[in-house]
Amino acid sequence: MQKAILILLLFSSTLIYSQNRETENILNEGKLLFRIEKGSWYGTDDMLARFKTKQDSIGGYLSYETENNKIRTIFFSRFNSDEILIRYEFDSIPKPQPTTIDTVNTKASDLEKSLISIRQDARNRAYTNNTDSFFSFYENAALNFIPIITDKESHVFVITGPQVSGIILLGNDYKLSYDKKNKFTKKEKIHNTILQFPYTSGNKEKPTISTIHSHITSKYISSTDICTLLLYKNFVEWNQHIVISDKEVSIFDLEKESLFTMKRKAWDKIYNQEKDN
């Protein structure tokens, strides 16, 4: 299997990464989720260090992309969600240092009100109204809620993040949909299970080259997979993640942030040729 993966690494690195519309959308959505979540990471780090006196008053936070492609992170009041206690703005690909910090303009914009509304609804469905056990919870893991509103759709993506170091978690992720009036319309599971991948193999002579998992309900890698892989790419020794479904194989390059797909039949042919040699 290692040889097959090496062949695919060489094979995919020589190609121009052309995608169909579906996989292009998945890749773009995954990168957007990553940028938004990274903004939340950096905003939270700065808030905890800089605004200790405000922490007890914070009711939640979220990040979103602005019209000029910046990432804005807001912390809203637990007493009045229309009141923004802190606003950060980051570059389009966030760096730890925000470009601006605003604690003066405290009124939430209409977009911010809508983002807060659907985020809070999603949290309530997960933590308070989970009577059908749709959402699953795991030890040493937490749900992260990422609202996105565009001209065409409104969703809250839910990903599971580890609360211990040294591992990546893929799966136990969800997508909740809302109409233009921020009313809930449906919810869906993106994966049926949760998988754990260590940062390293622990063996310097045989480092991990690539990680892999399978999809049953979808053809391609998910945007939430891409988001999580990008969030942790600087911590892991491997540079490629492969998702195998019934008819397609997705190969995501963490360093190049590129997605290559191939038919399952072609993948199986490479794998079977390796076994025969």
Detailed description of the structure:
- A hairpin with a 4-residue loop joins strand 5 (141-149) and strand 6.
- It is built from 5 helices and 14 strands.
- Helix 2 crosses helix 4 (223-231).
- The chain is 30% helix and 31% strand.
- Mean pLDDT is 92; it is low at 13-18.
- The strands form 4 sheets. A 4-stranded antiparallel β-sheet has the order 1-2-3-4, sandwiched between helices. It has a 4-stranded antiparallel β-sheet with strand order 5-6-8-9, with helices on both faces. Strands 11-12-13-14 form a 4-stranded mixed β-sheet, with helices on both faces.
SSE map:
Blueprint: H1 2-13, H2 21-50, E1 58-65, E2 71-77, E3 84-90, E4 100-102, H3 110-127, E5 141-149, E6 154-162, E7 167-171, E8 174-178, E9 184-189, E10 194-198, E11 210-214, H4 223-231, E12 240-244, E13 248-253, E14 258-263, H5 264-276
Parallel strand pairs: 11-12
Antiparallel strand pairs: 1-2, 2-3, 3-4, 5-6, 6-8, 7-10, 8-9, 12-13, 13-14
Helix pairs in contact: 2-4
